[in-house]
Design brief:
Elements (H helix, E strand, L loop, with lengths): L1 H17 L3 E5 L3 E7 L5 E8 L7 H4 L30 E4 L10 E9 L4 E9 L6 E9 L4 E9 L6 E6 L2 E5 L4 E7 L7 E6 L3 E6 L13 E6 L9 E8 L4 E7 L5 E7 L6 E3 L4 E3 L2 E7 L2 H17 L10 E3 L1 H4 L5 H14 L3 E4 L30 H11 L3 E6 L3 E2 L4 H5 L19 E2 L5 H17 L5 E4 L11 H6 L6 H19 L5 E3 L17 E3 L6 H11 L8 E6 L7 H8 L3 E5 L7 H23 L1 E6 L6 E7 L5 E8 L23 E7 L14 E3 H6 L12 E8 L3
Parallel strand pairs: 21-22, 21-30, 22-23, 23-26, 26-27, 27-28, 28-29, 29-30
Antiparallel strand pairs: 1-2, 2-3, 4-9, 5-6, 6-7, 7-8, 8-19, 8-20, 9-18, 10-17, 11-12, 11-14, 13-16, 14-15, 15-20, 16-17, 24-25, 31-32, 32-33, 33-36, 34-35, 34-36
Helix pairs in contact: 8-10, 11-12, 12-13
The chain binds (2R,3S,4R,5S)-2-(hydroxymethyl)piperidine-3,4,5-triol.
The site of (2R,3S,4R,5S)-2-(hydroxymethyl)piperidine-3,4,5-triol has 12 residues, from loops.
Length: about 725
């Protein structure tokens, strides 16, 4: 509290001394500092580790010789367009009289203490000519060193205005160099990183897919400064746009070698009109900064996400058996009930029924038909879902269900009856993604319909314990009948789709607060911190080959904690041992998608033991700290370590990711992290395949200091390509 008053006092003192205002927004380690100039415009002057003497921030601007003799300014806190700005703007408005210029002047700011840990700074800027108001919001999570930044724009003019660009955040970074790590992919190949130095000019990352941006390029990046960061060293900013639609990140290295970063919803095809007094709130841009490398930055973001963002992020999760790869669309009631025993046998909590259970006129027997017609298929499930729920409950497991409520197959009753609910061009050929089209969630009637799908399933079967919410199509044919009939511009569609989706999910969460829901998207996860406020977990990829997953989960783990990563053991890659597949899946939220009765005796025994082991250590995976010890990009060997908050237990996963030389790759011990140096620990191998013996001497006791300074050799080799170690503090 004292700190809060100090911050306000400090801002006031500086105003009176220098006549220009300094706004410093600080977390426990990191500061973002802005200052007004003599024209009352607000500029960034610092982003980095905070100074011990905040009064020294007032000295910074004197050394920033940014605008020389000319008018150009690059470090504006929210760059308008059409006046002095000659760089990429954050905001572009066509005013009610058609004038495309905007100027923003500082008016006031205030800081609200939302809790001991969370402070919200709001800065009001206005256009002196047009009176349009812009509020910049900075929510700071002190201990997690995480910032959440967004903007609202309010039309104070007598007539409509049009927003042509409306960024969430505009930052300015000064450093010697900048290295961007971006991610790209495609179905089953998601989250592939590329790191490169940013040169002068613009670099843009964006999505125009409408939905599931993650398919090609997720709304997330890592920016290293003064050299490429490592896990333990370097300045790094990790960022995510909390928005499940089109996004755009712009990186502009300017003539002073500094970096302007503009992040927000993509304005592509999305000019947005505001009536007088209407407000537009942008998506929230989430970022964390560390000068101790990516590992610390990720742990910041994970702690923030578990505590403040992911639905039930600090809660528990259910292990499950899914039938997608086990049956695809080919099942009936008897076959499904037959699989339930497998779930019980494995010891998981739940059976998850996937795609194919619905539609009658056009049965959902393939991905070509039935999507949209959410009544049980009578031929497959003559006794409905209720029967399955009760059969599952008889043998003591829970039951979950797959839906894909935002989409429709043209071959469906929904499409026949409600073409007006579908995003499609009225007079053109339709283009499909996985044989389907997207429903028009800008339409409140369609929002009600989609909510109704969820609600009806639960009203009829309140015991359903889990939902997998899939989303396979992208937005082709972008056109909304609803917007047309309402006289609203088509350019509202991409934004209003996401707002509509969030409105549905709000209602789902209000009425069904307890149900775990997986965010799925034909692999690829469709994951971002906008969606995750409603979902307990996301599906990383349809690709469950363990080696591919080691890489993908490594990359996802920069941004998302393991509690949110659904990882299943499947037969996608049968060349890999069941142990390797299960060990990798145990680094996330464990599930299986196999026919348990088809497992060999030893494989089944292994899986049963692995589920028990997972139950014993999942608390550490879900709620502990992650240390990425060895990157699979640097050696043919990867190593991940999870440590509980008390530093009493740790689980270390080590994998051989290439067997080119068939040797023992981890000949060097791996230095562990996050332990207590003065505590003693035992090291035990777990998840051993039946009949194999460990190479580890489990009687030896090591100090935390030893394990962190000298390290431990998991002895991974071609014959031991997946090793799980349990490190336990010795209690006297
Ligand atoms: C895509 C998902 O990623 C799969 O797991 C499965 O649910 C299919 N959709 C079903 O159509």
């Amino acid at each position: 509290m004292a700190r809060f008053f100090l911050t306000i006092l400090y801002a006031l003192v500086l105003q009176s001394v220098v006549g220009q205002k300094i706004i410093s927004i600080e977390s426990s380690k990191f500061a973002l500092v802005m200052q007004t100039d003599d024209l009352n415009r607000l500029h960034h002057i610092y982003l980095g580790e905070k100074l011990s003497h905040p009064d020294e921030y007032s000295k910074i601007s004197k050394s920033l010789l940014y605008n020389g003799n000319n008018e150009d300014v690059f470090n504006n806190a929210y760059t308008p367009s059409g006046t002095w700005n000659i760089a990429e703007p954050a905001l572009q408005i066509t005013h009610s009289d058609g004038n495309p210029s905007t100027e923003l002047e500082y008016v006031s700011h205030n800081i609200i203490r939302m809790s001991d840990n969370v402070y919200l700074t709001t800065i009001l800027l206005t256009d002196p000519v047009y009176k349009t108001e812009v509020n910049l919001f900075f929510k700071v999570y002190q201990n997690e060193n995480t910032f959440e930044q967004w903007t609202s724009i309010e039309n104070k003019e007598p007539q409509k205005i049009e927003l042509k660009k409306f960024a969430s955040a505009n930052l300015y970074l000064r450093n010697n160099d900048f290295f961007l790590t971006q991610f790209h992919g495609s179905w089953a190949e998601e989250m592939q990183p590329e790191t490169h130095s940013l040169t002068h000019g613009m670099k843009v990352l964006d999505s125009k897919l409408g939905t599931r941006a993650h398919l090609y390029a997720p709304p997330t990046f890592m920016l290293s400064m003064d050299g490429v960061s490592t896990e333990e060293t370097g300045k790094v900013l990790l960022a995510n746009l909390a928005w499940s639609g089109n996004y755009k990140f712009e990186f502009e290295k300017d003539r002073y070698d500094n970096l302007r970063l503009i992040a927000g919803a993509n304005s592509y095809g999305s000019e947005y009109q505001l009536n007088p007094q209407e407000q537009f709130e942008t998506p929230h841009f989430i970022y964390t900064y560390s000068e101790n490398g990516r590992g610390e930055a990720s742990r910041n973001m994970h702690s923030w996400a578990r505590k403040y963002r992911i639905y039930d992020g600090e809660g528990e999760r259910l292990t499950l058996l899914n039938n997608w790869e086990a049956t695809y669309f080919n099942f009936n009631e008897e076959k499904l009930v037959g699989l339930f025993g497998g779930a019980k046998d494995l010891g998981v909590d739940l059976f998850l029924l996937d795609d194919g259970w619905f539609a009658n006129k056009y049965p959902r027997n393939s991905d070509r038909s039935g999507l949209g017609d959410w009544t049980e298929n009578k031929a497959k499930l003559p006794n409905g879902l209720g029967y399955l729920v009760s059969e599952a409950s008889k043998i003591g497991i829970k039951f979950g269900i797959w839906i894909e409520p935002e989409m429709v197959n043209p071959k469906s009753e929904l499409y026949e009856n409600h073409q007006d609910w579908v995003i499609r061009q009225p007079d053109r050929k339709e283009y499909y993604y996985r044989n389907q089209l997207v429903l028009d969630l800008s339409n409140p009637e369609v929002q009600d319909y989609v909510y109704g799908i969820f609600d009806t399933i639960f009203t009829k079967n309140p015991e359903i314990a889990y939902v997998k919410w899939d989303c396979n199509a992208v937005v082709y044919n972008a056109y909304s009948d609803y917007l047309h009939n309402k006289g609203l511009p088509q350019s509202h569609l991409y934004i209003d789709y996401v707002k509509g989706l969030y409105a549905i999910l709000e209602k789902v969460r209000k009425n069904y607060p307890k149900v775990p829901i997986m965010l799925c998207s034909g692999g690829g996860g469709r994951v971002d911190y906008g969606a995750l406020q409603y979902f307990t977990e996301f599906w990383v990829s349809d690709n469950t080959a363990p080696i591919d997953r080691v890489f993908m989960q490594w990359n996802d783990s920069y941004f998302y904690p393991s509690i949110a990563m659904s990882a299943h053991v499947t037969n996608w890659d049968q060349k890999s041992s069941i142990k390797f597949r299960t060990d990798v899946a145990s680094m996330g939220k464990l599930g299986f998608d196999i026919v348990v009765d088809e497992l060999g005796e030893k494989d089944k025994l292994f899986c049963q033991e692995a589920v028990k082991n997972y139950d014993s250590f999942s608390n550490i995976i879900w709620h502990g700290d992650l240390f990425r010890l060895q990157s699979p990009y640097e050696k043919p060997f990867a190593c991940f370590q999870y440590v509980d908050k008390e530093k009493d237990r740790s689980i270390v996963f080590s994998y051989l990711v290439s067997d080119r030389f068939q040797t023992m790759y981890s000949a060097e011990p791996v230095k562990l992290q996050g332990l207590d140096p003065i505590q003693n620990y035992t090291v035990k191998e777990t998840n051993l395949y039946p009949g194999t013996r460990t190479r580890i001497d489990e009687k030896v006791i090591y100090s935390g200091e030893y394990l962190m300074k000298i390290g431990f050799n998991p002895e991974v080799s071609a014959r031991r390509n997946s090793v799980v170690l349990e490190i336990t503090a010795v209690t006297n």
